[in-house]
Write a structure and sequence with these properties.
mainly alpha, Arp2/3 complex 21 kDa subunit ARPC3
C-alpha cells in the first residue's frame, strides 16, 4: 500500500508545476501562446510526477480558468469536457511513454484523443455558437501537439537531470 502514496518530492513538484500552469493562465496571453504552454505543462507534469499528477493538473486548470474569467463564460458548459480531454491526454501519454514508441510518439495519440473528446463534445453534445465551437476544434489539436512535443523534449532531459524514475 505504501508504494501508492507519493513522496514529498513528488507532491512538491506537483504543487510547483500546478502553480506554474496557473501563472501561465493568469498572464492572459493570446490563446495561440497559452494553449501550447498549458499543454506543455500537462505533459511535463505527467513526466515529472506521474500520470495521476498530470490528470490532477488537467482537472484543476479549466475550473480555475473559468472562475478567474480567463475562459469565456459561454464556454462554461464545455469545462467538464475540457477536463475529460485533459485527463485522457495525460492518461494516454502516461501509458504510452513507457512503451517502445517512447515519449515522442506518445504525444500523437494523446493529442488526437484529446481533440476527439473536446471537439466531439463541442460538435455533438454542446449547443454553442459557431465561433465558440471553432475554438474547441482544431486549435485544441494543434496546441496539444505543439505543447506535448515540446514537453517531451524538455521533460526527457529534465527528468534525467532530476533522476526521476518516471522516465525510462
Amino acid at each position: 500500500m505504501r508504494k501508492f502514496l507519493p513522496d514529498i518530492r513528488t507532491i512538491t513538484r506537483l504543487a510547483l508545476l500546478l502553480a506554474l500552469t496557473l501563472a501561465i493562465q493568469a498572464f492572459r496571453l493570446p490563446t495561440v501562446v497559452t494553449g501550447p504552454l498549458v499543454n506543455f505543462m500537462l505533459i511535463l507534469t505527467t513526466i515529472l510526477t506521474g500520470t495521476i499528477g498530470g490528470v490532477f493538473v488537467g482537472f484543476i486548470t479549466p475550473w480555475i480558468a473559468l472562475l478567474a474569467g480567463i475562459l469565456a463564460a459561454p464556454l462554461a458548459p464545455a469545462v467538464p469536457f475540457i477536463m475529460a480531454g485533459n485527463a485522457v491526454y495525460c492518461l494516454i501519454f502516461g501509458l504510452l511513454k513507457k512503451t517502445k514508441t517512447g515519449m515522442w510518439l506518445a504525444v500523437l495519440p494523446a493529442s488526437v484523443v484529446k481533440f476527439c473528446v473536446i471537439g466531439g463534445s463541442a460538435s455533438y453534445l454542446l449547443e454553442l455558437p459557431a465561433p465558440l465551437t471553432q475554438v474547441l476544434l482544431f486549435p485544441q489539436l494543434i496546441n496539444a501537439l505543439i505543447g506535448g512535443a515540446a514537453a517531451a523534449a524538455v521533460g526527457f532531459y529534465l527528468a534525467r537531470i532530476l533522476k526521476t524514475a518516471s522516465v525510462q
